[in-house]
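Lab notebook page, bench 4
Experiment: in silico fold of construct C2
Operator: M.H.
Input chain length: 456 residues
Purpose: comparison with the prior construct
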Amino acid sequence: MKVNLLAFALCCILSHVQADDTRYERFYLRERALPQGGNGGSSGICVAGSLSEECGAKKNESCGLCSAYSLECGVNSECVEASTCTNSICGGDIANTREPLHCTPSGLSLSILKNFEYADVGVTDSLVKLLGPSDPGMAASLVITVPHGGSLKPDYIGDRTENDPTYCPSGGCRVSADSYTKQIAEQIASKFIQNYCKVPYLIINELHRSKMDANREIGEAAFGNAIAESAWTKFHEYINEAQSSIQTEFGTVTNTASIEGVRGLVFDVHGYAGTDWHNDGSDFIQWGYRLSKDSLDQSAENNCPIDITSSSTRGSFTHARQMPGESLECLVRGPKSLGQRFNEQLPLSLASSETCGRGLPSLDYQDPKAVASDPTYCADNDGVCSYYSGGYDVKVHERMDWDNDPTFSGIHMNTVQAELPRCIRFATDEVHEEVGDKLSIALCSFMTDLFGSDIC
């Protein structure tokens, strides 16, 4: 039997070498599982193609981790391809790629459409900017938001602190910036213009997070400071103005549940330290749809597809999930998901890790809870690492009447949050440019499959 298993494992490697369309992630896992001698790794984790006798002895405690890679335990304690709910439902989906036009976008650039400033004697500071096309007819149907990328720390706004008893929740307030997310968002917008000759909207909070947090309710965001409150209000008004411009230009479509939604997407750019993960921070881009780890837990009974287990107003794709031929399960972690679309463009040529940027969730990594509980990746003392499922911005701006629609009864616009890892954010300018290029392709392709080719 060992000979057969070895043949299976070698076949997996050789088939990758011979077939370009074999998913990189699957090859990576199998390659990692076969050190010298053909035995399983020293970690004792049962991974694809493992021949370790120890793995078999630890089947009950080790092979459960196979689910972290969308694999399952075979009869001989080796991991094999799993017939997951996601694979069954979404396996036939085809993710079309909107190929770059490689146009020469003369006259197309991001223009400052609105600029909220603080002005006093000898001081003029830009606090929040709305950028986009000077001609709405050249717009892309995409709103990019950067709530935590600012660096401005003016004295006229008091500092937010981590444990203020008046404004901070029980878990405390966050005051550190998401470094380099502004620069990466600008690259996404720039590459979108170069690739598709259309200009997205970009909203930037220039204030450091220690002064104002644009991804929180106004109390926690501004600590009662009037200037910070005004900047917070402008940030969200600018998002809504960009959404309204897209609605005017591209219109709406009504889904099978009679929910009307704008033909476009809000993309909220964040970064996370991931200090609870191995390797000085996780390599994963964490994609957030307002669905918790427990909601996406494939080991839980009757938890897949998530279309059944989540209500029609849960998550940030209330509109997209019931478009003809679509499902929330497949949009979040199927072949057409944003996470998988970016996975298919890996590895990044200049990043520090060949797996930098892999998506969680995605078709390759369907279960954030399983991955975040896997000691191969998670170094946290309690054995469970953080997964960021989406915050205030993607919650409220899924509704066009963002500050006055608690019942979700009005017009919608689909939203998604992306938490970028340190291996991307603290990399070189060249990596930022490459990520901007690949994300622009993933975003345009996703929107084109959902709404048609005219939106980007």
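Observations: The longest helix spans residues 226-250. DSSP finds 15 helices and eleven strands in the chain.
Next step: discuss at group meeting.
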